[in-house]
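ok posting inputs for the zinc ion job
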Amino acid sequence: MKITEKEVDYVARLARLHVQESQMQRLTQDMGNIIAFADKLGELDTEQVEPAAHSIVVENVLRADEVQPSYAREDIIANAPHKQAGCFSVPKIVE
Amino acid sequence: MSEYEAVIGIEMHAELSTKTKIYCGCKNEFGGEINTHCCPVCTGMPGTLPVLNEKVVEYAVKAGCALNCSIANLSKQDRKNYFYPDLPKAYQISQFDIPLCADGYVDIPLESGTKRIGITRIHIEEDAGKLLHDASDTDSLVDFNRCGVPLIEIVSEPDLRSSEEARVYLETLRSILQYIDVSDCKMQEGSIRCDVNVSIRPKGQKEFGVRSEMKNVNSFRGAIRGIEYEIARQTALLEAGGQVVQETRRWDDAKGESVSMRSKEEAQDYRYFPEPDLMPIRIEKETVEKIRQELPELPHVKRARYVSELGLPEYDAGILTEYRPTAEFFEAAVAAGASAKGASNWIMGDISRILKEKDILIDDVPFSPQQLAEMVQLIESGAISNSAGKKVLETLFESPKAPKQIVEELGLAQISDEGALQKMVQDVLEQNPQSIEDYKAGKDRAIKFMMGQVMKLSKGKANPQTVNALLKEELDKR
Ligand SMILES: [Zn+2]
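and the output
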């Protein structure tokens, strides 16, 4: 897959990143290289191989359904840039 | 003008009734004070790591078994990326390409018979927080208590063809989830929400029409009304020569209409990728088999059994089995000696009426199924009349005690003693010579009138069958 500035711009927008015009060429090239590298894997026949989402083989890391103490409300919102009435406060959302 | 047929698919999100959230030990409980069931994990603080709750996997597999799905031997979780203030990590952990359960079905009871609805998949995911819009004019406030509450999303095939089928499908799913005890399915607490896909096509056409998706409908009634609205809207569009646009719409229940949210051109790209913080889930065949074995009798099986074993009408069986606690109450009453039809009549009739009046569920009935059984037996043996039974029932709701004791305290025992009744019958006949003549002249109403007089004389305690027989006997003598 050929990566163009259009794709870089699209991905940046999805991730809410502001990309400077001057960075565009380098980013496009980097991203193209990464995709090309990943595409290489597609040349292998993996028909009989289970999908691997991780490089280490550890499965079923689970915890028991037991209640642990939650944090005090003041501590949870302590670092919020804006807060009121015990809540995180964000600019009004209009649907 | 061609006739149209609707094609409907539903994604139902149900909150699981685990004790804790999906990735942390915070309480999964509705109604806590704002932001008090929160910790760094479920509020997405940097550097924290999620650990999957084993019950979430078990419950999802249980639902998969109950809905005839195949359970993935190996499954994984994925990140679904989007920005919204109720989602502190800016991604929701969900499942993308390998859901826990897939390829199932559920049979729904329709008037025309049973219809099989395909279940595409069931996956696990975390719920988002809740935005409070009304607290301030300039800001929205965020409560993260619900953030990280475990959900299963049940995706149906586009097999539903009308709002009525959709209603039965939703009710069937709710009933099954309650039976297997994985979700309490309380709509008013938002523990079930639906996304509904609707398209229409000319009857007989194989290809699907263009669909719209209604997001986040939070009541069954809303879902049904929304579907009806969409079918009407799309039909009007096509008939006017227009075209349906693929889009997401929001159902506004207060206004009774759906409004466009965003069209397909700017559709969300969630950039799903495998969740690096969570390891794959492997489920052995034996584990699945064990869960399958332990499933309780499901509502449709119970329903069939009530008809075949207990001889109940299909209608009664359907109502009694819809909600598991009702079925359990009924079965306990029958086990305690009530006739199936008797227990069923009282539960479907007066008990459910009183429950509605009091706005409580059968779970909160103050008396026991055994007490209901005793009452039914008193009626069936002729010890009390049906109308006395109603009084006993009302008393049971107020201050539950043994029905026999209530009958004694209220003096409700039915008079079946022929001697006593004979006396009353003769008194009534002597006072009403005109009625005797009317009866002889063939007027049926006359005997009803005299029955009424005897009942009045006995303060409603006379056994009506005995009175009727005695009256006829006496009248024929004269
Ligand atoms: Zn937490």
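notes: The longest strand of chain B covers residues 113-126. The radius of gyration of chain B is 30 Å.
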